[in-house]
Design brief:
By secondary structure, the chain is an all-alpha fold. It has helices at residues 2-29, 34-39, 45-55, 61-73, 87-122, 127-141, 144-158, 174-208, 211-218, 223-234, 236-260, 266-276, 279-307, 309-312. The chain contains 14 helices and no strands. Helix 11 (236-260) runs antiparallel to helix 13 (279-307).
Amino acid sequence: MAAYIARRLSATLVVMAIVGVIVFLLLHAAPGSPAAIIAGDNATPAQIALINHELGLDRPLVVQFGIWAWRVVRGQFGTSIFSGVPVMDLVEQRLPATVSLSLVTIAFAATIAVIAGVFAAWRAGGLLDQVLMGIAALGFSVPVFVVGYLLIYLFAITLHWLPVQGYVPLSRGLGSWLAHLVLPGTALGLAYLALIARITRASMLEVLSEDYIRTARAKGASPLSQLFGHALRNAGVPIATVIGIGIALLISGVVLTETVFNIPGIGRLTVDAITNRDYPIIQGVMVIFSGVYVLINLMVDLSYTLIDPRIRR
């Protein structure tokens, strides 16, 4: 088990090093210059050259990467071109909203999806299975922004049950915090709910045909005991994998969802930075998102050792 963990940690470090190189080269290959943006439209070539020198952009590319990588290792992603605020400060300001949205989304999606997938497999081919999988297919097919606007129209504008948009910190009350996250969490979670439900159903169908399930049924075990006590645990590895993928995919989903619901999170920060071509913010957010993605995949891989004892051996 220790060797397995060591291999996964080593692979994670290699992946992050490759990600760092790609992020650095992509933005340096992009058209335009940070110095020209800072200097403004009326800047002279001499002024642009002076800013390039002050930022170190006139140094060899290898030297620039070394300086940038050393700062990233220490958690320093530079300063925003337009606001003059350190990138990490901006990320810390926006982080609670994004984390809150992600937690509500994955809790909603994973809980309902696993239960739906288990019961769909239990009644495979029946009406319940067809209804659940039909809803899952619909949720996976409709874009997030369409679902978001429909939910806003129905529950916020028509019924006045929930706020239209915005974000309230948890410190101002659990009820208000949750009320502002129900609609965006539902809109973002429907696609992941559909994916997790279908994988859960497929994994459960495979396990339910095993001999030990028939033995448990013959011994008089209740349906719930068969499904959740015997089958679900043995079908857990694919389910854990797809839940981990869903969490990682939230990174891209929050960008659109935060824009639709006007949530001041990291997704909105990314959109604004791309619009303004604020390179330090773009680089910092890309590295942070990539790090979270790799870390989640590492945690999913390590969770296999808890779900399946054969991996520990």
